[in-house]
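Running log. JK asked me to keep both predictions on one page so they can be read side by side. First protein, sequence followed by its tokens:
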Amino acid sequence: MKKLFFCVCSIALVLFSACSEKNGQAKYNITGTAPTDTTIYLVDRLDDAPFDSIVAKDGKFALSGEKEKNALLYVNMSGVPTSVMFFNDGKPVEIDLKENTLKGSKVNEKLNGYDREFNTIVAKLFAVNATLGAMPEEERGKHMDEFYATQDSLTKLCRSILDDNRDNLIPAAYLPVTLQLLGPDEGPKVMDEALNDKYAYMKSPFAKKYKEEYNKFMEQEKAASEAMNSSIGKPFTDFEQPDTEGNIHKLSEYAGKGKWVLVDFWASWCGPCRGEMPNVVAAYEKYHANGFDVIGVSYDDDAEKWKKAIVELKMPWTQLSDLRGWSNATAAIYSITAIPANLLIDPEGNIVARDLRGPDLQNKLEEIFK
């Protein structure tokens, strides 16, 4: 699958009166409607932990207090996955938890409009995904266009939120999901520019915290990438893991024995892995007779799901897994921080390439076996 499944405002929006602010705090005054006897929670998006709550009486509730100004907060009900989010800008907020609508400052009403549009698309995406999940594997390819189109509409919405609201707080709420939807190629390029402190949304505590976490993550990714690249040209590191029958095999049984070997890291639960697998199968079928082999290493922790996926995806090659999920021993050996991932080993046992996917894998093998 493709990558998958959130300035300076006008003075009236960003300045708060002395009575609503104190030492970087802003008062929140929330009134709303909800089913009677339902517990209402007020949550800070920074840690997703409730810090205030009340039980709705006669279909109404009210919450008041102080929280850091511009904090991204949301209100939800016990047992209900939906929520209504807003920025703590010191202006009163009125929320209808039956309709997930909000009345308040201009920026919060605009945020609510975006959020309802976002949730509508997400609901459609889940519905399409459920339909695809119920189909036989061989029929899914014919119906993937709707999934991709729905996902693309979600990506376009997040990009428009970011591009059209540089002068207010709204993009802060969608920074994480925008990066996720854009994927590893485009996402970092967009985020490196978007997380500039000159933009008004960077005044939100949530955006500041996200920037810190993003920078740490990118440092880790850089270190992992350098570790991966440093392995190219070096002999493979051996490991041993059980196959689907519980028999232990070493990588050295296959690699360095005169064949080209692709070690493919995947998992049954990984959508992009499943989406890439037909490409690997096609490569295997085309070049196996010429001396090309594949060894699968699964990051599953459920044996039955692992074995079922092997059959569904029609993978004829040797499959190994210690069934420890992300704690699979090969993750540390080969600096695997994301899947799908792979490494290509030449007949002498040297690693010559990593993360060959899509046409890159086909082009490399065509170059080798021409």
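And the second, directly underneath as requested:
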Amino acid sequence: MSVWWARPGLDVREGRLRVAGRDAEALAREHDTPLYVYDLVRMEEQARALQDSLASAGLRGPVRLALKAQRAPEALAVLRGLGPPGDPRSVGIDVCSPRELLHALDHGWRPEEISYTGTNVSERDLDAVLAHPVHVNVDLLSQLERLGRRAPGRAIGLRVNPRAGAGWDGTQTYSGEKATKFGIYQEDLDEAIRVARRHDLFIDTVHFHVGRGFLTEALPGFERAVVAGAGMARRLIEAGMPVQEVNVGGGLGVPQRAGDRPLDLDALAAILARHLGPLDVAVACEPGDFLTKECGHLLAEVVTVEDRAGATFVGLDAGFTVMPEHFIYGAPVEVVLCRAAGEAGTRTVTVAGNINEGDDLFAEDVALPPVEEGDVVAMLNVGSYNAVMAMEHCLRPPAGTVYFTDRA
């Protein structure tokens, strides 16, 4: 049986799930569960694929990791190793809080490789951020005023809202017809220019971020955002602002369910080249999911299999505290029985966690092969927005972690 999620570093051999070339169940037995297993080779593959598509389209500009998606030192060491500071093959960092900024600095990134894109930034935030020569993207008029009073004469980025969005299910958008808390709208752009001039601020970057997890089908919405963003960048240039970069944000997705097709990176790059190339600016992006989601998988032990009121519950020794993304964003969870990863599901079950809350359900009405207590299941492609968002509800401990920088 073929499975939609199989690829190098995540496959089935003799019916058993393998991660980074290792038997997943054996890893769980060796290191205990719940356990995150990271194939860090996948990050390099994703980074190089994106860089290559952008370069082939004639675009220059950095790829930066959105640090909020994955901040493990082991993962950062791999990304840091992809190229030295200033090298076009290196990967920069985008941060959104003072502690993230310090984390990036502590793990080897220079200030000029870091962009700071926050929202509702406080005076305390600015105390910490302005102590370093990082590039700051401002997303509110009031924030522009605050930064201008604190750091007149500084070169900054302006986060704009293009009123168009793209998301994996059509709803995970940060920009659209409904007002959001992010970015300067077109009708407020002249006021932003006036505020910048009043404080001698130089807008050298236009930034926008329009969604989360979008794939090829959502590229028309993304293109509408790029067209609007390019228009706003052009207005700033005509107003005398030295715009040198357009940062198109993150949101690039990876397949999360059967039937999903990988994002067409060449089509994405062609859109950017078509609309931003004439501006003669660097074109940057700051993916999180795209770089890191496919590198991590959570292993958990089955502690309960029980029929209840006509439904079969498979209970795990892990809950939403160690893997929150599904519960916060509604991201689907692909559950695989490690010892029978290539078998078709024959029984419909609900996969439940060990947190004392009724909503602690990873998957409902999912078909699995026959499951027994003591089995190990894997939840695939959860390398971003999960371990970094773990919490201590019910005082459950965090999951363990193992990292691989090669494939056996």
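Observation for JK regarding the second prediction: The radius of gyration is 22 Å.
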